[in-house]
Amino acid sequence: MKKHDLLVSSSVSDENLEVTHISYNSKEDQTNGVFFCKGNNFKAEYLDQAIKNGAKFYVSEKEYSQDIDRLIVKNASKALSLLSAEFYGNPQNDLFIIAFTGTKGKTTTSYFLYDILKRAYPKQVGLFSTVDRIIGPKPEDEFKSDLTTPESMDLFHDMRKCVDNGFKYLVMEVSSQAYKKNRVYGLQFDIGGFLNITPDHIGPNEHPTYADYLNCKKQLMINSKVNIINRQTNDYDTVYAAAKQTSDDKDIYRFAKDEVADTDFSIRNKESNLNDSVFTYTAESDKAEDLQDHSEYTYRLGLVGDFNELNAGAAITAAKILGVKNEVIADSLKSAFVPGRMEHINTNSHGTIFVDYAHNYASMKALLSFLKREYPASKVKVVVGSPGDKGVSRRAGFAKVLTELADEAILTTDDPGFEDPADICKQIDDQIDHTKVKVKTVLDREKAISEMIKSSSNDDIVVLAAKGNDPYQKTKGVDVPYASDPVVAKKILKDIGD
Ligand SMILES: CC(=O)N[C@H]1[C@@H](OP(=O)(O)OP(=O)(O)OC[C@H]2O[C@@H](n3ccc(=O)[nH]c3=O)[C@H](O)[C@@H]2O)O[C@H](CO)[C@@H](O)[C@@H]1O[C@H](C)C(=O)N[C@@H](C)C(=O)N[C@H](CCC(=O)O)C(=O)O
Ligand SMILES: Nc1ncnc2c1ncn2[C@@H]1O[C@H](COP(=O)(O)OP(=O)(O)OP(=O)(O)O)[C@@H](O)[C@H]1O
């Protein structure tokens, strides 16, 4: 605490207290435990409850109780991160950690790299993603994530499990919120990848301004030994300067699509269809040549979307830094699968269905532009909804992108929260130019999907957007089970004998 200038005061009467438990949730058993008082909504009664549940010590920015020993610190979430790392025996030192940040593509890139590394180093790779956390080789070591980047205590707990389960590598996503809330405070990454940044996550509960969002995101570069940067990201100069603060040029690799000067690797598309895309990855600098055992290599990526070639670029570069052979990378990428991200379902007579997590203007535009450009003769038909209680600007964004690029759309329910889904759909609908796109609203999501699939013919492309493979509808504070878009689509096809 002193080294990080966090200590305000300490009151320790029992120097021999053997701490067997740490917690930030007062409802848990706290026997011989240290309890952390942190968070915007913390209340003094949580500490009282923790003490009743056995806490022997607390860490806090304020002195709440003099009944037990305590450490008063300047910043409780930073203290939580540092002390959690210590409590779990600094598992980060036994893992090679590769982290990705970006407004879009974190999950996709993390899955690409996880699959590549798993082939190269079986039973040695963990994954902390928005979708799943994989902390060991057994089925019970794989579970759904609640946050993109877990709270620091949970992060170090799960890293410890990874190490105890024999893992040597960890691929993880780092959100801007992780830096804002100090979830990765004090952690140095072996490789940090910066994918892109566009205005998003700006609002009262996330980042007050774009400048704050960028500042949080660039922290990954400052805290990584080796950096991988998309040469075409917005604010490239700021991101590169952040990497340079702590890394030499030789440890900063840039990748770009098509003809861009001053990059280390270039991606050039050779062909694409509805199932995969083929692209070359070319070393453009001496240090890239040194990394790549061919100056150019051709990959086939089993996940379409030109943006996915960029995500693959980041994953390929990380794999190369780790010394993985091109053939292993190629084998993995050709069968790439990321739950709910550009999952495609081929039908016999109802066109091609894509399930994709695109859930704001920028990602829907990237997705629909790609489909329009590659398949100009096909109609693009979208089923989409927008969530309640957050991201209100997405509604206007969906209206704009549907007007610009869709042929037909059905507006439906997606995590309405405490709002009325009909109101949300109406807000989208009111901003659509109905002379450009045919739109209707069907609130029952399964019925909306069913209607769109049944009314589509073989040349059509059906996009089930924004929900990915979420198995719930967040409604009035409850996660109401929902089969997920891919499961619903496949069931409908089965029912109609396609
Ligand atoms: C605004 C925000 O970032 N909140 C996060 C933060 O909450 P917090 O530390 O402020 O805690 P709090 O909710 O105010 O609660 C106060 C404390 O009282 C404790 N408590 C509470 C009740 C009780 O009875 N007893 C008790 O001890 C709680 O355990 C907590 O420690 O720390 C919590 C974990 O300890 C997170 O769950 C929570 O994330 C919220 C729910 C969230 O969803 N955040 C989103 C915006 C987020 O972080 N998203 C990013 C992805 C964004 C992207 O795509 O880029 C992510 O990384 O997931
Ligand atoms: N590099 C990219 N650029 C633009 N759009 C992308 C990119 N990669 C993925 N997308 C789109 O964004 C959606 C979400 O992708 P992914 O889950 O990989 O990103 P993420 O950064 O983890 O997102 P989130 O923070 O919203 O969870 C995809 O379904 C796709 O439509």
UniProtKB/TrEMBL annotation:
Q: Which residues carry this modification: N6-carboxylysine?
A: 217
EC number, as in UniProt: 6.3.2.-
Detail which positions bind UDP-N-acetyl-alpha-D-muramoyl-L-alanyl-D-glutamate.
26, 148-149, 175, 183
Question: Which GO-annotated molecular functions does the record name?
Answer: acid-amino acid ligase activity; ATP binding; magnesium ion binding
GO BP annotation list: cell division; cell wall organization; peptidoglycan biosynthetic process; regulation of cell shape
Q: Which residues bind ATP?
A: 102-108
Matches recorded under InterPro entries:
Mur-like_cat_sf, Mur_ligase_C, Mur_ligase_C_dom_sf, Mur_ligase_cen, MurE/MurF_N, UDP-N-AcMur-Glu-dNH2Pim_ligase
What are the subcellular locations of this protein? Cytoplasm
Q: Which residues belong to any copy of the Mur ligase C-terminal domain? A: 340-468
User: What this chain does, per the record?
Assistant: Catalyzes the addition of an amino acid to the nucleotide precursor UDP-N-acetylmuramoyl-L-alanyl-D-glutamate (UMAG) in the biosynthesis of bacterial cell-wall peptidoglycan.
Q: Which NCBIfam families match?
A: murE, PRK00139.2-4
> Which protein are we looking at?
UDP-N-acetylmuramyl-tripeptide synthetase
Organism whose genome encodes this protein: Companilactobacillus mindensis DSM 14500
